[in-house]
């Protein structure tokens, strides 16, 4: 079976989110014998060097266009190239390309699977026009795509309530491979085991980055922030907080051993995400046995269940950080065991990939 994965910035992952998803699922599908191609932005339209047995196809992006229009052009070009290549199934990460689906045949759309992700249009970074376009693309994905994937049961329920549209529930996965440690990352940032909090996220307003920085600083506890700082919001956050002695901006870190080390030795893991379904960074923190302090919403509750601490307000956050930070060894071990067991039961990549294989087989009328 030939499978295309579209809608991301490509592999290897150097961004997070859907890029981490694309890398994990494509490599694992290829290991099962599927012919997998990941589409990604490039200076020209061309076949690129494979990554771990996964083919890569570069879709030309017109660099002279404004950034927002580049994304629109890339989405249209991706679908155009996809139409003219002989794939059995195409998995679209996110619904933003769906704005063009009305212009493609029903036959083309039949083998297109759209992972709806979270409620992208609710992200605070978007202005009115971008938010309207994202809401429109969500509606068009529901209307014109036969097969939708919801990565959380909360998103699945939203699609039923909002559009009376059924979807297939397949969550994200957490790394279930043995990943080594890289203690050099601790030395690089002058960190001592169990003496820092950790935040791994895209540096965006809806992830409540500023709230975390203020809370850890008020408690005089060190916080390591992992995430790219190239966006206007990221630059503003760094400028405002870089002088704080308890804040360490590590930038984007994509080496799995380094990330695993940071998670393993953190005393508290902060997860402030407020928009979206099952979040990969939260799953990886759980798989590492972190003491998680998370924003209290339906998505995080669904993922963590009873395996973390939840906060609703800045004052509540201070209390939850203190509670997690001061937990004794017995409590920490018990929480870590619950987190790891929950990931093994519900969120391993091996289980996730098997569910996608079953879905793809059903679409192509092949026996699982």
List the helices and strands and how they pair.
Blueprint: E1 2-6, H1 18-31, E2 35-42, E3 46-51, E4 54-60, H2 67-83, E5 89-93, H3 106-110, E6 112-115, H4 128-144, E7 147-150, H5 153-163, E8 168-169, H6 184-188, E9 197-200, H7 209-218, E10 223-226, H8 232-241, E11 247-251, H9 256-265, E12 268-271, H10 280-287, E13 292-295, H11 298-304, E14 309-311, H12 314-325, H13 329-346, H14 349-363
What is the straight-line distance between the termini? Answer: 12 Å
- Write the CATH homologous superfamily of the largest domain: Glycogen Phosphorylase B
Unreliable runs: none
DSSP helical segment count: 14
**CATH architecture call of the largest domain:** 3-Layer(aba) Sandwich
Output the strand order for the largest sheet. 3-4-2-1-5-6-7-8
For the sheet with most strands, the description reads: 8 strands, mixed
By CATH, the topology of the largest domain is Rossmann fold
Shape: globular
């Amino acid at each position: 079976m030939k499978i295309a994965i579209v809608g991301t910035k490509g592999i290897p992952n150097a961004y997070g989110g859907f890029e981490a998803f694309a890398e994990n699922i494509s490599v694992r599908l290829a290991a099962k014998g599927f012919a997998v191609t990941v589409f990604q932005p490039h200076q020209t339209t061309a076949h690129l060097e494979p990554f771990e047995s996964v083919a890569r196809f570069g879709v030309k992006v017109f660099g002279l266009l404004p950034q927002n229009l580049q994304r629109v052009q890339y989405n249209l070009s991706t679908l155009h190239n996809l139409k003219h290549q002989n794939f059995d199934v195409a998995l679209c990460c996110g619904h933003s390309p769906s704005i063009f689906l009305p212009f493609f045949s029903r036959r083309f759309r039949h083998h297109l699977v759209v992972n709806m992700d979270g409620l992208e249009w609710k992200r605070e970074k978007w202005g009115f026009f971008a938010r309207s376009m994202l809401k429109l693309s969500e509606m068009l994905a529901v209307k014109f795509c036969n097969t939708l994937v919801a990565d959380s049961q909360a998103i699945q329920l939203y699609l039923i309530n909002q559009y009376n549209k059924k979807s297939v529930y397949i969550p994200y996965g957490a790394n279930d491979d043995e990943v080594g440690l890289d203690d050099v990352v601790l030395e690089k940032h002058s960190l001592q085991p169990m003496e820092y909090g950790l935040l791994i996220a895209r540096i965006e307003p809806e992830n409540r980055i500023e709230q975390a920085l203020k809370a850890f600083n008020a408690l005089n506890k060190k916080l390591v922030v992992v995430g790219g700082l190239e966006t206007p919001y990221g630059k503003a956050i760094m400028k405002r907080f870089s002088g704080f002695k308890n804040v360490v901006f590590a930038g984007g870190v994509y080496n799995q051993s380094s990330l695993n080390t940071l998670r393993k030795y953190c005393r508290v893991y902060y997860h402030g995400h407020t928009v979206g379904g099952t979040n990969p960074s939260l799953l990886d923190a759980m798989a590492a046995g972190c003491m998680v302090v998370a924003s209290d919403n339906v998505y995080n509750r669904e993922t963590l269940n009873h395996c973390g601490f939840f906060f609703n307000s800045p004052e509540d956050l201070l209390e939850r950080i203190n509670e997690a930070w001061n937990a004794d060894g017995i409590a920490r071990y018990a929480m870590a065991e619950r987190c790891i067991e929950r990931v093994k039961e519900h969120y391993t990549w091996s289980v996730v990939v098997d569910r996608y294989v079953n879905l793809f087989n059903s679409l192509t009328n092949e026996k699982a």
